[in-house]
Amino acid sequence: MVSTGVGVVGTGVGMVSIGALAARFGLATHVLRHWEAVGLLHPVRDAGGRRRYGPDDVTRVATILVMKEAGLGLDTIRSLSATADRTTRHEILRPVAEELRARIAAAQASLELIEGGMNCAHEDVTQCPNYGRLIAERTASRAPAGEPVREAATPTS
Domain total for the chain? Predict the structure, then answer.
């Protein structure tokens, strides 16, 4: 293959350099090299040994980015890429989904606390019933094993 500056002559028509592909997605070239090193990308090489990426590679980079935005790590992405089996895919994704559900629940609890603080009419947020309930729930769930759980008094409005 010979570069013409517009593309690559011969079977490499539509191929782009690592710099062009990285720029298309706003990535540093070292990211693409790393993805190649961990087995996620498999660029062809031109006669000079330079990486060349085609339309399938563009799709692959977009797929990797979407999966990373969904919270998947490179190892998980590589495992998913290596299988077309539905059962295996479910085995790979099940713990990821469980972890995501836990993070969503934690974020929802944080939002509830913040909104409760914003909506509280008391000068001292610790006097808000919502705050008192959240603190009571937290202290009740943290009682050492074998010790009785004491109900925390919930402040009134």
Answer: 1
Q: Which of 127, 92, 129 is nearest to 112 (CA)?
A: 129
Residue type, 1: M
DSSP 68: H
Q: Worst-scoring range by mean pLDDT, 35-44, 98-107, 112-121, 137-146?
A: 137-146
- Structural domain contains residue 86: no
What pTM was estimated for this model as a whole? 0.66
- Give the DSSP per-residue string, 104-127: HHHHHHHHHHHHHHHH--SSSGGG
Does an H or E element contain 45, and which? strand 44-45
Which pLDDT belongs to residue 142?
67
Q: Which of 7, 23, 4, 5 is nearest to 15 (CA)?
A: 7
The CA-based angle 81-79-100, given to 5 degrees, is 105
> Which domain does 60 fall in, by range?
1-70
Asked if residue 100 is part of any domain, the answer here is no
CATH number for position 51: 1.10.1660.10
